[in-house]
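Private note to self, pasted from the team thread so I don't lose it. Backbone tokens:
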């Protein structure tokens, strides 16, 4: 993570598992392609969606699916609705 990302409060600290997925995508497919996938999901066009309960215990979502399907926390687990 760059210092700039840390300073602007990126999601890396509160969504560490999602950050690992993004890092893996970048390593496997290249930064440009992986970032395009993530930004497509962020823009609501599907293609990239992550949900997790962060280290602070807060459930967060990022991105979107093509069918607009989402996750929820049920009995302490993140599951598809």
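Design output:
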């Amino acid at each position: 993570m760059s210092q700039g990302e840390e300073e602007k409060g990126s999601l890396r600290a509160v969504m560490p598992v999602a950050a690992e997925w993004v890092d893996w995508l970048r390593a496997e497919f290249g930064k440009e392609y992986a970032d395009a996938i993530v930004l497509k999901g962020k823009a609501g066009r599907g293609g990239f969606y992550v949900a997790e309960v962060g280290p602070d215990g807060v459930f967060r979502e990022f991105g979107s699916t093509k069918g607009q399907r989402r996750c929820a926390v049920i009995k302490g687990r993140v599951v598809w609705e």
